[in-house]
Write a structure and sequence with these properties.
Number of helices of chain A: 6
Largest interface: C-D, 28 and 28 residues
Strand content of chain A: under 5%
Oligomer: homohexamer
Number of strands of chain A: 0
Order of helices and strands of chain A: HHHHHH
Helix content of chain A: over 70%
Shape of chain A: elongated
Radius of gyration of chain A: 16 Å
Chain lengths: 134, 134, 134, 134, 134, 134
């Protein structure tokens, strides 16, 4: 618990002295966790109206994940990052495609939600490496 | 760095086994950090078009902070929480009002942005206490 | 009919000389009436595609009710109001929770829609008392 | 005051037994009142950042007025209404154009805000006539 | 056909000296094509979750078609256009109503999607005539 | 040029049998033309309120360009396309960055708007090649 709060404080102070604004892959991750949780609930429930709401909300979350990832890819990452991490373009493309897959047809499979979280974790790792190197 | 990643993992596993969905005050905090950062940049820049964009984006961020806080207040917190934390209603009301103040007239004062972050930190502390107690 | 138009004119002139902008609980009420009407239509119709649209639109209306109420609670009502009406925080919290309940799982019960309208009527009554006292 | 509350109750019961959903020109009117109020405040204030926020919010309100009017014109009014009120198409077109004018260049003139409210009052009158005739 | 395509090319370069900005009925047409395509897919698929997503996305597209048409009707077309094309008000009203019909109850009939495209084609023809005449 | 225009006509009729839905780079192009037009108008006008509106609308258009390009990049283009056009990832990244640049600080230079249109034209060319090859 203490370590979490401590880490959080570090983030905050790191953000403020940056000229390029505030970015955090946590925004995409939180929405992706929501998708995975919704898939879990869909498995337990056959009520059509419940499923409608779940599918609708999952679709919205999927759009939010995509949006947060697109913003990182376009606004945060710069040419030197793409040179240092040549896989970064493809990683973002796969992650946003996976947000669509987990939010769409494949969405009843919990593994699809986890796969999305795994892609985001890879992006998160690179993101914080570039922050540490800045 | 390690402690941050570790804590993050704890969050993720804590979210998934909850029946009431995924919530995280980090969403409000990240947008509030953005407001504070924008106030900082406004102090350094007299270009009218830059100021227009900054004021516009700050206004949007202010709406996002309010929205994320409102969702927590209405959807996450339940009557037993409000009994245990009798200050919680007022705290949320002050925090959302402060989001408006930091996004609006008072917004050129960096202290307004920090005050918003302080309110969110208080909410964050209570939020994680209720999660730990669940 | 005459009385309605007359009252409306009073509202308009009352709004313009206020420094704090234009607010009206009617915005939340109109969306809540829509929720109640949709629940009524859902009871009469088993077509799955119709139900999907109805559930979707009801969900959106629920978000709009919450938004209009949150704006009143944060932007219109001030500390002196909360002192004079100590139940106001809880009333808004219950009303926005009810907007979620009537828009969500409990939504097939017409009584849920009416309960939402009743909460909004209570808020409306207090709102116009504060306007009259201003 | 009594007459207003009474009239309001009539509205509510009139809405619920309609098969075509809930409509109310009050939605457009409330946003238009906001535009007129903002124009009034702009006249009193030369602070560039305040003006930016006012212009931004007025622009949003203008979009909301247009949206509420368009919905009435497309979704509520039916061919028999347009036959009975041959001026209705042009009235809506002028009203939505005026929403743009009051939200845009002409917006510093309070008369533009009032002109928008006058158009909406004309629509409101016809709207309630068609409700009474239904 | 050739003249319209030619006009399009001119239009792109001509936008900058126009006082009325950039408009193109293609925006409404592209969304309407999407509606027609979705109706086609709904006919081939009984999976309830797929249908939910399709109905949801079709509903959103319907809103987008309406919005793009409303903008043309209010912001692009001027009184002289309505004089020269006296059917224009009714054409737009029918087209936006049809966007609702194709996005709503009647939406399982591919002919409804085509009918929407036909209305938009009529508007498109008039639009480019007015551009050529400008 | 002729072949692309011809393909467009085919495309409209061909949308329905496509599994991936309806896409068209024209959506991004139309918004980008709007950005370029707004930059042109900003050069001619010193009225602060006009500039505020122009900067605000340009910012919104910039978001729309980015959104339409992101959707193409994530939802339309597939791994085989990225293999055949190895520059495609970088092209989209540059184009969306340019949408931000033309919508943001660099936005007073008409060349920035044209540069955005040039990137979109490159994407448009590849898009129609892939459609023709499908």
């Amino acid at each position: 618990m203490l370590s979490r709060l401590f880490a959080r404080t570090i983030d905050v102070s790191a953000h403020c002295d940056l000229p390029c604004g505030v970015y955090d892959p946590a925004q995409a991750r939180i929405e992706a966790e929501s998708i995975k949780a919704i898939i879990g609930k869909l498995a337990d429930n056959d009520d059509p109206d419940f499923r409608t709401r779940a599918v609708l909300i999952k679709e919205q979350r999927s759009e939010l994940v995509k949006h947060h990832l697109w913003v990182l890819w376009t606004d945060y990452f710069k040419p030197p990052h793409f040179e240092k991490y040549p896989q970064l373009h493809e990683l973002f493309n796969k992650a946003t495609k996976q947000a669509g897959a987990a939010g769409g047809k494949g969405s009843m499979d919990p593994a699809e939600g986890q796969k999305l979280l795994d892609y985001i974790a890879q992006i998160d790792k690179i993101f914080w490496e570039t922050k540490a190197a800045a």
